[in-house]
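Ticket reopened. Same input as before:
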Amino acid sequence: AQTVTQSQPEMSVQEAETVTLSCTYDTSESDYYLFWYKQPPSRQMILVIRQEAYKQQNATENRFSVNFQKAAKSFSLKISDSQLGDAAMYFCAYYGAGAGNMLTFGGGTRLMVKP
Amino acid sequence: KAGVTQTPRYLIKTRGQQVTLSCSPISGHRSVSWYQQTPGQGLQFLFEYFSETQRNKGNFPGRFSGRQFSNSRSEMNVSTLELGDSALYLCASSFLPGQGSFNGGYTFGSGTRLTVV
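Engineering reply: fixed in the latest deploy. New output:
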């Protein structure tokens, strides 16, 4: 079974600085998708960024980018120019046919942004 | 367009009772998935419905059930509630089953917070 691990329960960053959230996963599949979701206090899961495993190029969405290391099964999220609104829980998630076409989530990282 | 709508937002029930939660997907989305979120177990997949049929089910007891209607709206039911069922229940919709990654990923609702006392 696929597992997703986020080793940092909490992270803190100064406003305007850069922070990196870590995620590792375990799978025997070669074709899959990885996501980072943000969950603010409003509780809704918001898709931040996604990465297709067959693409070597790292995904980027404005201030958010990933470092996808397929061989190492690592998928970290970098947030540049952190803003107060970035404060939230961040979840790394795996999606693949071998996982039953459902999202498998990591335990989450709480990101605090200091003004 | 309207997002995924979950009702009610909050619910308090007594042990032994049953509860029904509702989820209206984004217009045009035909697949609805349900997840349970608790501090101890994190986010866990409950089940997925497409075209009124359950396509996939997570590792939950039979007390957890669901259904989907012809308009793609979905309901989940939990019978004989236990204290451990207290959780945030999230619904996610996508255009096609297994296509959540191709069409912008799953879109989640804001969840229903269920408290069992």
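The radius of gyration of chain A is 14 Å. Chain A has a mean pLDDT of 93. Please confirm and we'll close it.
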